[in-house]
Amino acid sequence: MTENEKVSIPELGSNQSYLNGELGMRMTSTTNEPSASDRSGLGAVANVPSDEIQLRDDRAREKLAARVNDIVHGDAEPPKQFGNLAGSSDKKTYAPGGKVRLTKYAAIKNAVLPAEGNGSFNNIHLALLILFGPAILLRVIPFVKPSWFGWVSYFFLVALLGVPIAIAYWTAMSMYGARINEKVQLPNRPIEYYLDIKDPVLAQKYSGHNKIPMEIFYEAYFDQKIDVKGELLDVMEYRWDWAAMHFTPNLFKYVLFKMLPDVLLHSARQDEEQIRDNYDRGNDFHEWFLGPQMIYTSGIVTDIHREETLEELQDNKLNLVCSKLGLKPGDRVLDIGCGWGTFAAFAAKNYGADVTGVTLAREQAEFGNARIKANGLSSDQARILCMDYRDIPVQRGYYNKIVSLEMAEHVGIRHYSKFLSNVYDLLDDDGVFLFQVAGLRPRWQYWDLIWGLFMNKYIFPGADASCALNWVIAKLENAGFEVRSCDVAGIHYSATIDRWLKNWLKNEPKVKAKYGESLWRIWLFFLSSSILIAREGGSSVFQITLTKNLNATHRIEGVESHGNLLPRPNKGKTYSSVY
């Protein structure tokens, strides 16, 4: 593909006009009385009574309407005169290489270059290198006598060389590991096509087809040493063509001396400091991308053919959560990590629940209580507490509904089991726990890891508990919970963040005036990259509905609220038995 070639994606416009035009004329004409010429052409039918002709016309119109409906919804192949109808098999559009289909759905930012990157390394190979590398080293060093070799010296070398061997292996695999597949061909444009490198040292090092490591790019971009040509999101769509997903020395330095110590320590005081530093930055800062609802979690798409607003996506999610909980008036609800209290106000106002939200961020608590009051609710109906959920003065099993929407990431791997155990204790034996948590794919790509380290450093420090679904489920079951339903909703997150990005871009002057260019760029990279990685599956979100796994749990009472993201029970539809 040349530099000037662009991928064209089918449009619905011409087909919609066809539906409204030619087809509409056909359908309308069936309701009219046939002309003399039409009757003469009908032959024997010309003498049929007009009421019978009308009946036949009505049936023809119904059949045509049903046919159009089947075509639009993908249940039938469109006739050739429909032209380039989205979803038709004969007019699909493909990415460069002709093997991966492109889409154009209004709900999301559609991919233009859905290429795969260099994938994960083999853990067995790494383990063998760490275990046998020191033994081989002891054998080949000239001045080491075989008689000196023993278990003590061997384990000493394993401990001493394990980390350097792992670093060398990770670096080599990130630099020389093959892409998972090459079904999508890269445009192979020079780096100057995408980036304007202002720093002379970087410009000399990275030019032409010499790709820049992603970590070096985003650090230089934040420092205004590099600008992008066009919108950052569009440039990031083509990142495989200009960026290398290499593990750099700075990434290893961050992992060894910042991230790992945080994971191992992860104290309550550390949680409080990091959360307040992030969420107490300023309500205006967060509102400039979250919008007036102030919800920092994924919304839910219900119509892929329409660009639902951010407010619609979030209302879809709030209603869905209440539905999965089977929320009723008087239910005692705990929202752990409630943010700005939007769910608490929503559940109390629309479902009559008694809701308590807890957060460690002072500004969030103040904002949430003001929102509750503004919605005509008293503190007896809903309230936001600025405290640790473990310090709430209630008896064991007090709450019959508990919600945690993307708060557990901040708990940390070290305290994950303890967190779930505490939730279990707070929940009534017949209660329901709705757990929404960000997650990662186990078959990761190097881009996933580099993005995750960026997120840990700049966006959510200390949030180290984004893990694979099987790990999360195992932790929940070991804590005594039973999974009622589980949905993987990463693509919904991509749509949500797409709306956040649009808000952020609209508020660019305000953000830069108050918070500066660097923070503006950090958040622009965060939002742009997150749209892509959530769409691609590298990062996701899991929405899991749980009950206690006890013999006495009344599971039958959860049947009516047992649904997935878009439950379609087809109530009122009649069926014919086949037995």
TrEMBL record:
SUPFAM superfamilies: S-adenosyl-L-methionine-dependent methyltransferases. The keyword Translocase does not apply. GO terms for molecular function: methyltransferase activity. InterPro entries: SAM-dependent_MTases_sf, Sphingo_C9-MT. Coiled coil: none annotated. Pathway: Sphingolipid metabolism; Lipid metabolism; sphingolipid metabolism. Its EC number is 2.1.1.317. Belongs to the CFA/CMAS family. It is found in: Membrane. Its main location: membrane. CDD domains: AdoMet_MTases. GO terms for biological process: methylation; sphingolipid metabolic process. Keywords: Lipid biosynthesis, Lipid metabolism, Membrane, Methyltransferase, S-adenosyl-L-methionine, Sphingolipid metabolism, Transferase, Transmembrane, Transmembrane helix. It is a multi-pass membrane protein. This is sphingolipid C(9)-methyltransferase. GO terms for cellular component: membrane. Pfam families: CMAS. The chain crosses the membrane at residues 124-142, 148-170.
